[in-house]
Amino acid sequence: MTYTIKTAQNEWEIVCGLEIHCQIISKSKIFSGASTAFGDDANENVSFIDAGMPGMLPVLNKECVHQAVKTGLGLNAQINKYSVFSRKNYFYADQPNGYQITQYEYPIVGKGCVKIDLPDGKSKNIGITRIHIEQDAAKSIHDLNPKKSYIDFNRAGVGLMEIVTEPDFRSPDEAGAFLKKLRSIVRYLGTCDGNMDEGSMRCDASVSVRLKGEQGMRERAEIKNVNSVKFAMQAIENEAKRQIEIYEQGGTIEQQTRQFDQSTGQTKFLRLKEYADDYRYFPEPDLPPLLLDDEYIENIKKEMVELPDAKKERFIKQFGLTPYDAEILTESKETADFFEQAATGHDGKKVANWILGDFFANLNANKLSLDQSPVTPQMIGELVDLISRGVISGKIAKDVFVMMWKTRQSPSKIVEEKGLKQVTDTSAIEKIVDEVLASNPDNLKAYLDGKTNLFGWFVGQTMKASKGAANPSLVNELLKKKLG
Ligand code: MN
Description:
single chain, alpha+beta, Arc Repressor Mutant, subunit A, 3 domains, 9-stranded mixed beta sheet, 3-stranded antiparallel beta sheet, 15 helices, 16 strands, binds manganese (II) ion
């Protein structure tokens, strides 16, 4: 289904591309030795380079290069063996040099491709245009004091990967799916923590609209620094609607930079868009071109972990999972590893049901992360086996799970100690059935007189009398024999 926005007169289509700034995971900054730790006191981690002191020279941090190449490989992209740093000149108080060191004509990573999975079950490929590496700016803080602005330089010089996509998005859902997929990939790779709320992954969206079937692109607006997947989707949708309204009233759209307002969900005007020329880019004289060789790239390829798409496919094949379940279980590497440990050697589909059901429900209810869980993967695998082997019923298993959660004991031990083993001894069940029939002569007569829908009631009474321990199919079988 193509997504369009219909008005009384027209049917409109969204054209959107994303630029995502990802803070590179690295102990020190991209051109200085200062720490990148998040949450330290303001201006704690600032070197002379980050503060733009005269006479200081940048030195490229190899770890940042390594991380960018790894990310490029994870996005199925071309790694450029020759790339160049450039100066992007602009004044802002959080940029003491008056320029940002970035890459322009020659980025470190070229064209790539990311597959996204959409809510309707379809998938789509999104083109990656490039990734370049650059330094982050300091952080201006305007809301501490009504008369003053503050600047925290801890962020100044932290390495960034700017990931630029083709204008391939046609709906807010597609952009949302991409951001989630990208976040999942960089987290698997360990190249960015993906925490949008802490600003380590920030999204800019370029949005334009056109009539359905129209070729070419109209003027676009760029929405800066959106800090959650939900907000990005909302910003794209509302910006598209704003532009449509202007066109339909006979107006035009100017290329401009806008800001997303969380309280209203709308975008608001920030400034007319700068063009590349305005920045007077030129090659950074303090850094030589960055040269990589095949061996370097091959060695990073060897470090690559299995990424979410490949893992999802394998889980579907190996454990018989549905695409939907496999998608959720592979979104984070931690969850995928937990599942795989629990499922190996057991019924994977049933293990998935327990993890996605009772297990996640308990984690969420107790606000625990996976590594704080009192229930281990081994315990879940064992629980599934106890049910498969007929030792306990599915109903009893639910109680065992609750006890596992409380006591951290293995399910076999709980079943043993609490005497929860399912009764599969026919003569023992027969005795209970006889008692149930003998103590309910009225219902027995009614049943024999033709009220056969009482059968289920007898099953229920027998199960109850056995405290849930009787094997339900044996109960059914015996009752049929006695009543039939
Ligand atoms: Mn940038």
